[in-house]
Amino acid sequence: MRSLPSTCVRIIYTNRFRKFIASIFILLFLVPFSGYAEVSATAGEKAFKQYCTSCHQVNNKLVGPALKDMHTRRTEEWLIKWIRNNSALRATGDKDALAIYEEYNKNEMPSFLSFTDDDIKSIIEYVKVQSAAPATQPGAAPGTEGAPADQPSFWLYIVVGVLVVITFLLMRTNTVLKRLAYEKIGEELPEERPLLSRLKTKRAIAFYVIAGVFLLGFTLADSAMRLGRSKNYKPVQPIAFSHELHAGINQINCLYCHSSAEKSKIAGIPPVSTCMNCHKAIQQGESEAGTAEIQKIYAAFDKNEPIEWVKIHNLPDHVYFNHSQHVAVGKIACQTCHGPVETMPELYQFTSLSMGWCINCHRQTDVQFGSNNYYSMYTELHEDFKSGKIDKVTAEMMGGTECQKCHY
């Protein structure tokens, strides 16, 4: 039997080896990413924190109902319909959907039409895990107690490690097979280059440069996007004021202290005189520490000096935000942006307040279009709404995502 020329052997061997390497890489990279499309509490946690925490908690009421054990009160099929498009579910005359809508003062929950069934099932799975976990203590950062481990990142590190090991094993296999191929055709094996010299080739150096540029670019872009964000920022205040005590236990309306929120661009920090409206009569706390904090109010009042509160929620100077537009016109609950302040002994920044977070709200939150005369100028949308062509109106549909709305 006539043997193949050495050149043909090398070409056939090289092509087969390249196909084998490509198959291994495709398999290794597809396996970890396929897990993201499956139902999991980890995927549900990410979606819940991104889309749900402004209105819902697992163990406590917020803007919407507490979600604990919701899977035992409603079927999975019903929950999928409700979460994806609750207005469409109400339109069918569903009694449970209508009852929830009425109970929560007709505050319409945003629709999530882009969610797949698996996305919603993952959120339900996350709520199941949280329902079985110990309840978060009041004032603690939400979504931290009982959260499942970050499995995708863990497995990604494992896959990368396995990939590196397999790469070196394949390089060794390549050397052995090459030696066997040359022995079969009776030719002398070319001198094998050491691994270190292979890592210094022009191709290797080009790969290092390209990978470094991409890594540096990603790092710079990620750092730039995070610049100025202060989620979970919780500074020490000059007086230990508890929103849990005032807004939660004593149920003082937010607008009593922050009255300019419905009339002005800024919500404002109440002056000492506002504090004294109540504390002329309330001079002692439930403990010596509480009484000492109240005395600080009297000290500031007697000296006619303002209390130097530390501002928590800060937007960049190039961003325009109007509280009255959201509170008085949009009827947006304070908790939507500020979180469950009525459970916070110490106030902290609950959401990122990033541009993406605001845009998502403008895209998903239904405005009270039919009952608010402020929107009467949008005649075409009113006609579409009345005719049933559309079943909801969002801020985006009225230009709420145009750059000039917030940057001018």
Brief summary of the model shown:
This protein has about 400 residues and is mostly helical. It contains 19 helices and no strands.
**Integer tally of domains:** 3
Tally of alpha and pi helices: 19
Cα-to-Cα separation, first versus last residue: 82 Å
Average pLDDT for all residues? 82
Task: Report the β-strand fraction as a percent range.
Answer: under 5%
- Roughly what percent helix? 40-55%
What pattern of helices and strands is seen along the backbone?
A: HHHHHHHHHHHHHHHHHHH
Descriptive account of the structure:
With 408 residues, this protein is mostly helical. It has three domains: 41-136, Cytochrome c-like domain (Cytochrome Bc1 Complex, Chain D, domain 2, Orthogonal Bundle), CATH 1.10.760.10; 194-229; 243-406, no CATH class. 53% of the residues lie in helices and 0% in strands. Helix 1 packs antiparallel against helix 8 (151-185), helix 2 packs across helix 7 (117-132) and helix 13 (272-279) crosses helix 14. Mean pLDDT is 82; it is low at 31-36 and 136-152.
Keywords, please?
408 residues; Cytochrome Bc1 Complex, Chain D, domain 2; extended; mainly alpha; 3 domains; single chain
Write the layout of secondary structure elements.
Blueprint: H1 6-34, H2 41-51, H3 70-73, H4 76-84, H5 86-91, H6 95-103, H7 117-132, H8 151-185, H9 195-198, H10 202-226, H11 243-249, H12 254-257, H13 272-279, H14 288-302, H15 323-329, H16 334-338, H17 355-364, H18 379-387, H19 403-406
Helix pairs in contact: 1-8, 2-7, 4-7, 13-14
